[in-house]
## 1
Amino acid sequence: MRIGILIVAGLAVMLSTPFASGRGEAGTPVDDQRLLHAESEPDQWMMVGRDYSEKRFSPLAQINRENVRRLGLAWFFATGSRRGLEATPLVVDGNLYTTNTWSRVYALDAASGELLWSYDPQVPRRWGAYACCDVVNRGVAAWQGKIYLGTLDGRLIALDAATGRPLWSVLTVPQDRPYTITAAPRVVHGKVIIGNGGAEYPGVRGYISAYDANDGHLVWRFYTVPGPEPGAQAPVMVNAARTWSGLGWQAAGGGGTVWSDLAYDPELNLIYFGTGNPSPWNSRARNPDGKDNLFTASIVALDADTGVYRWHFQTTPDDAWDYDAGQNLVLADLDLNAKRRRVVMQANKNGFFYVLDRETGQFLSGRAFVDQNWAKGLDPKTGRPIVAGLPYAANGKFVSPSPLGGHNWQPMAFNPQTGLVYIPANEAPFLYQAEGSFPLSPSHWYTGLNLAAESAPTGIDPLLLRAVIERGVAGQLIAWDPIEQKTGWRVRQPSPWNGGVLTTAAGLVFQGTADGRFVAYDAQDGKLLWQQHLPNGIIAAPMTYTIGGRQHVAVMMGWGGSFGLAAGEAAKVKERDYAGYLLVYALDGRASLPSSRPTSRSIPGLPKIVAGNQALADGNRLYNQHCAVCHGANAISSSALPDLRYMAPETHRRFEQIVRSGTLSKRGMVGFADVLSTEEVQDIHAYLIKRAEITRAAERQPRWWAQTKVFLYGLIAPLLYRLQALRFS
Ligand code: HEC
């Protein structure tokens, strides 16, 4: 009898732990204690930033400087997606959890890559129109046998970590506003913390919320900008309201969204996050009196239990440049002036590297880590930028950094052994020009900027266009000394928008690149130790774990995101139609990816449209203002979304219905009837046909002639670029 009971009990235990998942060596699921001491479990990667300090530093050292050249693909997993992949996977007790586009989740066996379960929240594809920066997702959180997911349409969902079955789901955003979630939730003391994005669209007011991790009920919410409701505000918001003027921003929502990473200090019990740009970008339209607009473009600290405000530091007061402060925040203890300080660090979009006291928010130091010309520097006492003038001169102005940022969401990493922070940095000046009148449409970008200011002439040779663009943008991996506030080493990269970073105790730095390489550098001096060429670009950050005594390094490969969609010509990887994969490397790995078949495509028959130069110029301006953010600047798509030069004859016939009436809105192509007239849509159509004709002619020219032109254009591109820069300096 007793034996019988034991067998039954044993069976029940086995049945309740399918795939032996969700249990650690100690037999405890991921709980507060394990998360608090994540650094003492080197084999796991239980949070997207690895631990609450978000250093992305792994103590693992099996893969080292000497043997890293033996690194090879151990296994891979096909996502089937052609759009951007931004997640950092988690590995918890033998299972790997990662996400795909459209907020889809996978649980895989971390040793073999076998799919254990998948979950698709069925995000309505029309929500894609609300996603400023692609239908991406940056990962999940794990706690007490559950996996937490934020969905693009604003739901927070708890899944059973063993089966993928949804346990509860709450709506975290109003459904009549263009809010989106792309960030990974964080779990702090039994609460799931999640923000949202959308400040490129009207009507979005940023906030961050904490939900009970057991049942999903709302525990607290903190608005990052004051709201219209009278009297219902804490004193801190009354003060914030004084930094706004006029009422226009209330219609626009104010922005300041919390769309990215979060760090937590258990000793101070504070959470830290950065807030997004105010909305609209054009500060003169939003903020005629030039006030600070708190708490946009700021680093904010809240009490983790109550969501009560503790301090803020505004990196860009009265932001006019789209300088979100959403870049990852790293907590560290640094010796500054012979004193050990608990700091929070950020390589901000505005190009400055900040070191703040994380208890008080006091500015300790700051210095530019990339070329910048928007500020003369920082006030040495307060850290407030000394602005070099507003960017919206009558003619426009070339400013660095651009809305792409000196650094964006791609996480940096801090290695306490080298004392260096590794920053994936961008160089891409941007022509800021105000847009006189801009319609307030709920489903379209709303910035108050002429996004078409930099568009190329309609008739430009595609090869010349490429040469000029390549001249104008680049990337860097910067190893930054946060104590001295200076560069340790840097590696130049041909394109901006490279992947996030991982660093390890073996003195390695791992990063994927926009031009399709996965690279290991020496953390001390930046020497390239190993690289593998890939058929697709990488923007996500790698992570590392051990299973079966073997260290693995995993990264999501899949070019996309905001720059990926908008900058088709800058996409460096030739086989751009290649889908996205999770790649998992180990020493002596022997797997190889399916070979890529470069897709040859040709431009089908084009309709004849008679359009004068004015109509073509209007079409150019309207296309680059309204369509380029998704279909690519100058009508060159990165192939994540349709390249409109290659439309089928049937699509040409239905062009106006698609673009104005929104006949494809269920698939994320929302109609523009509230923004564009029939005539304007015809102008865009004429422009696209013209670009298609020019592209077709270029594709038909003999190879030797094309190569000669590439050579000549390479010589004149720097000059053209310089002239352009002078014109708008
Ligand atoms: C928010 C992103 C977004 C914006 C902005 C956008 N589109 Fe689209 N568009 C899409 C998506 C997504 C599809 C693909 C729908 C599908 O899956 O078929 C699409 C498809 C199309 C198609 C059909 C192409 C084909 O070959 O099937 C046309 C035409 C089109 N868009 C025109 C435009 C024009 C013109 C503009 C600017 C006025 C514009 N789009 C702005 C996302 C966008």
Note: Residues 1-26 have pLDDT under 50 and may be disordered.
## 2
Amino acid sequence: MKQLLIFFICSIIIISCNKNEKEDIAEKKEKQKLSANSGKDIYIKNCKLCHGVDGKLGISSAADLSISVLTIDEKINVITNGRKGMAPWKGQLSPEQIKLVAEYVQTLHQ
Ligand code: HEC
């Protein structure tokens, strides 16, 4: 009887350890997904076409982002609502993604 009890306790410990491991993996995957959706990735995917990798390209008279004097909030506004040659992104990107990409654009400043 005592042996059976020990067996049960060991099983429970093993099962609960396994569960933690699985949760850890799920957590890691979630983090990877988030970083795959970083500002840089969003920029390369959606903005590089007109603005170039470094923000200087200026296709279809796109503004040179490396010398932009806009604040982060003004950038978020332009990206969200568009301006002249630039279409609004609010349908394509979530507010969080727009904030991430605006923060990335800040890093292109010289
Ligand atoms: C179809 C080409 C095109 C794409 C794609 C594009 N832009 Fe633009 N962008 C422009 C043009 C053109 C302007 C200048 C608008 C104007 O003259 O008012 C501009 C202006 C801007 C400005 C304002 C800069 C300043 O200092 O005035 C920011 C910030 C910006 N774009 C960020 C982005 C981001 C971030 C993305 C990707 C989500 C993006 N753009 C995608 C064409 C584009």
Note: The radius of gyration is 24 Å.
## 3
Amino acid sequence: MFTLILLAAAGSAYAAEPAPRFVGAPGCASAMCHGGAGDLRHQTTIWQKQDIHSRTYNTLVNARSAQIVAALKTPDATTSARCTSCHAPFHEVPPGLVLNPIDFKTGVSCESCHGPAERWLRPHTRTDFSHADRVTAGLRDLRNLYVRANTCVACHQTVDNDIVAAGHPELLFELDGQAVAQPRHWREKGDWHGPRAWFVGQAVALREMSWQLAREKNPDEKLHARWAALLWLLQTAEAAGVSPKALAGLPTEAAPANFTRTQESADKLARDLADAEWTADTTAKLLRQFAKTAADFNDPKLKPAAHARRAERLVLALDRLLTGSDPVALLKAEPHLTRLFQLAQSLPDFEPGAFGKTLELLAGAVP
Ligand code: HEC
Ligand code: HEC
Ligand code: HEC
């Protein structure tokens, strides 16, 4: 699926022309460009030495991968598109779309995120070439949160249920936390607000989960529970009154029409939020809204598993919002947040009551 996204994104700006081709990471890595020393030219060094994306192929030869492919009855993780599409994406790019042969063992490399460079490689070094000019030439506009979320989510949310059942980690996309966790080879332009990135990322994750569920004949129960929890979380976020109400009232029953409507609404929400004004007050309002949800963990109609899935998403949200708040708020709330993380850790013995009580303590600590 990722290749389709990669190729569709690559072709979209030039629908009438052939898709631009990939040049490969060595094309970016000369010392005068992104392979040098110093803050402006050290992108390749950071990627190679610190960023797991340069080693995603290696994962396919480890023992856990061997177990996963054995369970799936797939002969080899390193050549199966079911694994390489995310761990070694160049394995899936047809020869006609690369300028030079690209070693797919380089993993997730520059153009996997920035887009195929054929049309912008030369001109983007000119000093009179603006960011907008580069984007017109096909460089992906990763400064735009919606574009960035779409880029990361292509590999960070949707994995087939049988792959998860075979032992692959469940994927949970969270743009803010994962953007901070990726070793930074750039300086963030404009006003970066982690909580806004969190919100855009969650809306995009909901869209992708809706898309996956809408395609399943018998929607996977676990995935449906995770989807319903995320929809609940974002409906709660919308109730804070800091965003358009795109998801209000959407039903959570497993039905194709519900998934399709949510997919469209979540996409609209993500687009709107990417350009939304954001201040410290916006973050504070969201935080207060989430801190008030203790009663939602006291709903007798919901199964404990459904509560657990809500808790799983909520703790991550609280973590990102508190991290993006003032240090005093974070300090006061931290012990309760740590406890919430502990309570949400094990799905099978999740206790909604204890979680709700701790949430009330946290609400008392939030200004
Ligand atoms: C949709 C993209 C995607 C696909 C398809 C995918 N993976 Fe992954 N895989 C990931 C991501 C992202 C992580 C990191 C998850 C995390 O840390 O939470 C990961 C983590 C892993 C891990 C755990 C990390 C480690 O070092 O042990 C293994 C093993 C793995 N993948 C193997 C596979 C195999 C084998 C396949 C094919 C059957 C596969 N993956 C298919 C995206 C994918
Ligand atoms: C996993 C995704 C990903 C990969 C892989 C990746 N980048 Fe980036 N890169 C980003 C994001 C996100 C940004 C920040 C947004 C922006 O400035 O465009 C960025 C920013 C940049 C910038 C702008 C730096 C600045 O401060 O203005 C350069 C240059 C760059 N990347 C080069 C590279 C090179 C060269 C490679 C390969 C060695 C690479 N990137 C690999 C995601 C990625
Ligand atoms: C072409 C697929 C691909 C794209 C695009 C991609 N990643 Fe990843 N990423 C992976 C895979 C595969 C792993 C798992 C690494 C492993 O253990 O093998 C991973 C791991 C990570 C990790 C470490 C594990 C985790 O989940 O915390 C972070 C952080 C991360 N990616 C952030 C990002 C961000 C931010 C973006 C977008 C700017 C992005 N990635 C885009 C494939 C991708």
Note: Residues 2, 52-53, 56, 59, 86-87, 89, 108, 112-113, 148, 151-152, 154-156, 178-179, 181-182 surround heme C (ligand 3) (CB under 6 Å).
## 4
Amino acid sequence: MLRLFKILAVAVVALLVLAQFFPPVRTNPPVNPVATFEAVAKPSQEVVSIVKRACYDCHSNLTVWPWYSRVAPVSWLIAEDVTDGRARLNFSQWNLLSQEAAKQRLTGACEEVRDGEMPLWQYRLMHPEARLTEQDVTALCNVVSPGDTPR
Ligand code: HEC
């Protein structure tokens, strides 16, 4: 039994070591300052600071990659969240959106934060500063529907 356990432990360590040789691609594409959400939609400073604090790591090209984003297999999960997040909503490329599409993104953002789906729970765990207050949620939702209050 002990022998089996030792073999398993060695196998797990070997796999983890091997995994480090396959780092994911971690990019921060250049940001054109006139193309951003701040520049195009001109939201309040409060809203800008909320999305910077809680959303930018996955929904902009200004991702701050933490040290553990270099350690497989966590690195793969984080890189995937960023790729997926940017593909759906990228505050650094707001100029690419039609007015309708921009509104849709913001309505989606309001719904996601109101339901506590965003930022992702695992991100909130590692980034306590990204947890949103009811006031933050109201401010974000007010961008699309002023006067609307959280459920
Ligand atoms: C840790 C990374 C991460 C953070 C931080 C994060 N998101 Fe996301 N977001 C994702 C991923 C991954 C998806 C796509 C998968 C999903 O919907 O769960 C997504 C999807 C979305 C979508 C689109 C859903 C759709 O159906 O296309 C919206 C809107 C959104 N996020 C808003 C936000 C807002 C607003 C914040 C900040 C308050 C935020 N997210 C913070 C990773 C993140």
Note: The CA atoms of residues 64 and 117 lie 21 Å apart.
